[in-house]
Specification:
Strand order of the largest sheet: 2-1-3-4
Order of helices and strands: HHHHHHHHHHEEHEEHHH
Distance between the termini: 18 Å
Membrane topology: Multi-pass membrane protein
Bound molecules: adenosine-5'-diphosphate, magnesium ion
Main location: membrane
Number of domains: 3
Strand content: 5-15%
Radius of gyration: 26 Å
Helix content: 40-55%
Number of strands: 4
GO molecular function, one term: ABC-type transporter activity
Keywords: Membrane, Repeat, Transmembrane, Transmembrane helix, Transport
Shape: elongated
Subcellular location: Membrane
Length: 381
């Protein structure tokens, strides 16, 4: 039951906008997920070790698993945890409400475990292909693994390196522990890909959604820069109403016909916050946005930094399109938001430390883990 609770916290981070803020600070997306994985595994490794010890230590005359190899049982359980955590990441990426995500998580977790126990324990007649496909769910895979361990134990042999790829049923090509192992790795890779994809195309309220085919666009893999000298296209027609910009200036930020519409009450209420803004901002100059309350200044800034996706229109920052090369854009951006986006569990000092160090790439790695550890500690005490 640990996994769904991790999922709730992952979704909370997405809902509160802290995740986007960290990305805005320059945190790499993979690092964020990696730190969640470390966070989840810190606890799971301890649990798995305790379980394995309980299974192997003899109480009275015999241990529960008398013959099986300690390390192999431990590794299988650990792989199961890793696959289970990525499974929860993948489900969590479909949700933007933490509690809903956790309910769905617990439900799916429970169903995928209990509904498969019976067929797995009695399923020796099933085709090996069916068994392997069913192991796409980590909970089913671990049920198969338990079944295999029990088979080896009842034969008095126990699971060992020697029979790792041998099916205990004796049938050629039947399911073996090695195959379960492979399937758990396949699951981890599969759910990581699902998480990566869904998280990119449906980032939730904050963040810029990528188009569904983003992974075949060359710009995703290698950031492409538009020609850095923009031509002012509609200059000709505006000539009479606008003063021409000085010709020696370099356009740093180019906003073209930017619109942002907020939908609330499930799409019933439409609020046009930014309506067709076209603006060139020159590098080497200080530019200020002025306007009455509700004019859309904050929304414009939020779109520029990638906190919200634009409804339509485009923004180029230093030649990079924010829809395609947000990471590149963020390397040259900073934003002090109007509303505090804070970790509810950290103190002022911890926030200062965190954001000071997170902006130094070389330190990101260790610090993120540290902070997640603090978070976890807080949550539990
Ligand atoms: N997250 C949001 N959901 C719905 N409406 C919003 C949201 N953020 C801003 N708005 C609306 O968009 C308009 C522009 O807001 P904002 O950009 O904050 O204005 P400014 O910063 O210029 O005062 C306002 O009418 C505000 O109510
Ligand atoms: Mg404002």
């Amino acid at each position: 039951m640990l996994c769904p609770s991790i999922m709730k916290r992952v979704v909370e981070e997405k809902e509160s906008g802290v995740k986007e803020l960290m990305k805005m600070m320059g945190l790499k997306t993979w690092m964020l997920w990696f730190s969640w994985m470390v966070n989840a595994l810190l606890v799971n490794v301890i649990t798995v070790t305790i379980i394995t010890v309980l299974l192997k230590v003899p109480f009275g005359d015999t241990a529960i698993l008398q013959y099986s190899d300690f390390f192999l049982v431990w590794v299988i359980l650990l792989f199961y945890c890793i696959a289970g955590v990525t499974f929860c990441f993948a489900i969590g990426s479909f949700f933007s409400r933490p509690t809903l995500a956790m309910c769905a998580g617990i439900f799916l977790w429970f169903i995928s475990y209990s509904a498969t126990t019976y067929p797995v324990m009695n399923g020796n007649t099933l085709h090996v292909g069916v068994k392997l496909v069913s192991a796409i769910l980590p909970n089913t895979a671990i049920n198969w693994a338990f079944g295999l361990i029990v088979s080896w134990e009842t034969r008095g042999e126990g699971l060992s390196w020697g029979n790792f790829f041998t099916p205990p049923s004796g049938k050629e090509g039947d399911i073996s522990m090695g195959l379960i192992w492979v399937m758990l790795i396949v699951d981890t890779v599969l759910y990581s890909i699902v998480t990566w994809y869904i998280d990119s195309v449906m980032p939730g309220k904050y963040g810029v959604a990528k188009p569904w085919h983003f992974f075949i666009m060359p710009s995703y893999w290698c950031s492409s820069k538009l020609s850095s000298t923009f031509s002012s296209d509609d200059q000709a027609e505006n000539n009479r109403t606008f003063e021409n910009p000085p010709s020696n200036l370099h356009v740093g930020i180019k906003i073209q016909n930017l619109r942002k519409i907020f939908h609330s009450l499930g799409g019933l209420n439409k609020k046009v916050a930014v309506d067709g803004v076209t603006l060139d901002i020159y590098s080497g100059e200080i530019t200020t946005l002025l306007g009455h309350n509700g004019a859309g200044k904050t929304t414009t800034m939020s779109v520029l930094t990638g906190l919200y996706s634009p409804t339509s229109g485009s923004v180029y920052i230093d030649g990079y399109d924010i829809r395609e090369n947000l990471d590149k854009v963020r390397e040259s951006m900073g934003l002090c938001p109007q509303h505090a986006l804070l970790f509810s569990d950290l103190t002022v000092m911890e926030h200062l430390l965190f954001f000071a160090i997170v902006s130094i790439p070389a330190f990101q790695y260790s610090v993120i883990q540290l902070v997640h550890f603090c978070l976890k500690f807080r949550v539990e005490h």
